[in-house]
Amino acid sequence: MVCCKLHHERYNRPLSGLRLVRAACGVVAVLAGLVTEVAQAQSGAPAPTGLTSIPGIKVGHHTLSERPTGCTVVLVEAGAVAGVDVRGAAPGTRETDLLDPVNSIQQVHAIVLSGGSAFGLGVADGVMRYLEEKQIGVSVGVARVPIVPAAILFDLSVGGRPDVRPTADCGYRAASEASSDAVAEGNVGAGAGATVGKLLGMGRAMKSGIGSAAIQLQDGLIVAALVAVNAVGDVVDPSTGQVVAGARTEDGDALADVREHLRVWRSGPRGAGRGGEGAGQNTTLAVVATNAGLSKAQITKVAQMAHDGFARAIYPVHTPVDGDVIFALSTGGHDGEPNVLVIGALAADVVALAIVRAVRAAEGIPGFPSVSDIAGR
Question: Which of 43, 129, 234, 297 lies 20 to 30 Å from 15, alpha-carbon distance?
């Protein structure tokens, strides 16, 4: 009754299209949160903390000190069925074709997310070296070949040293330090140089980073996500419909909310923004995972559905200047017949939660304030 009364008091007037979307998003998010809390309370299980809540998954970061950049490695040394869905128009990827359900390889042994633009794809070489030393990979008779898909984001313009970018050695170190501990969030790994809110120019952007979240149901099903958020757009909290981080006003003291700017957008030098700049210099990357046992086709569908989480928490998203990618992993171990509809819906939920966590956990760096910096002004 309290929820209904609050809803009546807040919305008992005509809704604009934008406010209607915000209201609907808030209701869905609140209901999802209530279902999760009830399920955890009934099961007596501790609340999951992130991607490493999935048994068999380890996460390692390596962050460079010379400038804000780094890489993040998700290890599944026992192997995991994997899928991928690429929605952004400017992706940088490696070994994604083999994840197509029609292709032969059935499992991967790691996923790499890296800064450094296309240079960062070399990080996967170091992860392969680490896994080969442990004799992990697909047996081809004369060797074991680790399967390590990778994706990169663009952060070369952050920190003033574009010659500093993650290398194969960074990948080796991240893999060596990977653990099943709670995932470190914020300015680490692939999120070290991540920024958001660049539609009005880099000078009005904000710091972002890595975020992770998980949901566990009463029967032990876990769905989790890790996201490196480097979007050209703003980050919106689906539970409130409010912008959390993104493009700032000209004085830099408040959020501009590009949803309003895009409705009065004009092209040309006198226009309302500069969204044509920096083609491909953004990208949000995610890894979602579940302990359900799924086929390649099923986990690929989960990756597709998980992109709804991007759409709920980033505005605009999947743009011509983003390279958005979601990998999905199925480790198995959960009893019962898997329900792809449920798993995919929960994947979208945890992706949205992880995106919001990424910007809230980030710390400001010169030129790019954080959420806490703006809130403290």
Answer: 234
pLDDT value for 19: 45
Q: Which residues of the chain have pLDDT under 50?
A: 1-45, 268-273, 276
Tokens of 261: 């700017």
DSSP line for 189-242: GGGTT-EE--TT-GGG-EE--EEEEEEE-TTS-EEEEEEE---SSEEEETTTTE
What percentage of the chain has pLDDT greater than the value 90? Answer: 76
The model carries a pTM of 0.85
Which domains are present in the chain? 2-375 (3.60.70.12)
Which residues are CB-neighbours of 269 under 8 A, at least 6 positions away? none
pLDDT at 88: 85
Q: What is the pLDDT of residue 198?
A: 94
* Strands 325-330, 285-290: pairing kind: parallel
Report the C-alpha gap between 349 and 312 in whole angstroms. 9
* CA–CA dist 326, 342 (Å, integer): 18
The pLDDT assigned to 30 comes to: 39
Reported as type and span, the H/E element at residue 245 is strand 242-245
Listing from the earlier edge strand, what are the strands of the sheet with 314-315?
242-245, 234-237, 314-315
What residues contact 141, with CB distance under 8 A and at least 6 apart?
Answer: none
Sign of the Cα torsion 363, 156, 150, 92 reads: positive
What proportions of the chain, in percent to the nearest 5, are helix, strand and coil? 35, 25, 45
- So what's the pLDDT on residue 177? 96
Task: Enumerate residues 6+ apart whose C-beta is below 8 A from 194.
Answer: 115, 153, 155, 207, 208, 209, 210, 228, 229, 230, 358, 362
Angle of helix 17-43 versus helix 340-361 axis, rounded to 10: 100
Distance between CA atoms of residues 245 and 204, nearest Å: 11
Query: What's the CA gap between 224 and 305, in Å, rounded?
Result: 14
Helix pair angle (17-43, 2-11), 10° resolution: 170
3-class secondary-structure state, position 31: helix
Q: What is the pLDDT of residue 279?
A: 52
